[in-house]
Write a structure and sequence with these properties.
There is one protein chain. It is built from nine helices and 18 strands. It has 318 residues and is an alpha+beta fold. The chain has two domains: 116 residues, Rossmann fold (3-Layer(aba) Sandwich), CATH 3.40.50.10330; 171 residues, Tumour Suppressor Smad4 (Sandwich). It has a six-stranded antiparallel beta sheet, with helices on one face. A hairpin with a 2-residue loop joins strand 8 and strand 9. The radius of gyration is 20 Å and the shape is globular.
Length: 318
């Protein structure tokens, strides 16, 4: 695959790399794709594959691990990263994300530069200091997630965002904020879904649960948005908050706390926080199925969701 792998010791083979490309990712174009792959071929034995439908990256990553690849590089957004993680869990093949989406939360959490040129250069340098490490993954109803998951409002928001990929690509995080406010006012203020969240032996009623498996729940551009403390990629636990009510002024004030950094979300009167936990069970109490999201992708509507964490589930290199 590569004609001139530089700076390798005599007899040392280049690392085998599968680059999984999401061709519709925010930052993707044929020119960008070609330049990135060409650069990576200077240090790695590179194979590329493109996704065509949801779930493709899971199958491609699982096969890469079976074929003995050293690393799977996702060139797309956090949805592609999530699928690759689900395919690689429990294997020796490492995962490394290149920022090709609108937010690239996992890349930011791992300390990978957000600029694509800088991120590619960073990945090239890793060939000389190859040190994969293990990180935790969260699980909800059998689906792994890397940094965040939720049931309720956030899943409804990402479902709405994904129906308008053009606006998502054009306006990025501002479109998420708009969708959050519109979704809350239309679907939650008048007749919100009701759920019960059981964590560590206590039960809390509310309308949504937000769970994080890392220091931050997400980012607004480059500004970190932590909902509550207690979770890291290597902490062995999750953290989260329950939105306990759906009053018209709750989302604007919660959003302000999240984006301004001026006050902790956990101190909001409409929020009940769980600083660190291993398992949570969420049940619909009004018979309505509630949407679930993982890493920014809506995956299902369910009457019950079980959240847990699997320590050291995934190898990463960053």
């Amino acid at each position: 695959m590569s004609d001139g792998v530089g700076s390798l010791e005599a007899g040392e083979r280049p690392k085998r790399m599968l680059v999984i490309i999401n061709p519709v990712a925010t930052k993707m174009s044929d020119r960008v794709k070609g330049l990135v792959v060409y650069a990576l071929q200077g240090r790695y034995d590179v194979t590329t594959r493109e996704t065509k439908a949801k779930g493709d990256a899971i199958a491609l990553s699982r096969q890469a691990a079976a074929d003995g690849y050293d690393v799977v590089v996702t060139f797309g957004g956090d949805g592609t990263v999530n699928e690759a993680a689900n395919g690689l869990v429990g294997t020796d093949t490492a995962l490394s994300p290149l920022p090709g989406g609108s937010n690239n939360v996992v890349a930011k959490l791992l300390g990978i530069p957000t600029d694509l040129v800088d991120a590619t250069e960073h990945l090239l340098k890793l060939a000389d200091r190859w040190q994969p490490r293990s990180v935790d993954l969260g699980i909800v109803n059998g689906r792994y997630f890397t940094f965040a998951a939720g049931i309720g409002l956030d899943a409804s928001v990402v479902e709405r965002v994904d129906r308008n990929p053009g606006l998502k690509k054009r306006f990025g995080p501002y479109y998420f904020v708009e969708c959050a406010i519109v979704t809350f006012l239309r679907r939650y203020v008048v007749d919100p879904p009701r759920l019960a969240v059981e964590v560590d032996g206590r039960e809390v009623g509310g309308v949504s649960l937000f769970v994080q498996n890392a220091e931050n729940y997400t980012y607004f551009k480059n500004r970190p948005v932590p909902l509550v403390e207690g979770a890291r990629f290597d902490s062995g636990c999750l953290a989260g908050v329950v939105l306990t009510r759906a009053r018209p002024y709750d989302v604007p004030t919660v959003t302000f706390r999240a984006l301004s950094g001026a006050a902790r979300i956990a101190k909001h009167r409409g929020v009940d926080a769980f600083g660190a936990f291993g398992e949570a069970v969420v049940r619909s109490t009004d018979g309505r199925a509630i949407p679930i999201q993982v890493d920014g992708d809506h995956i299902a509507d369910e009457l019950e969701a079980r959240f847990s964490v699997e320590p050291d589930a995934l190898r990463v290199v960053a």
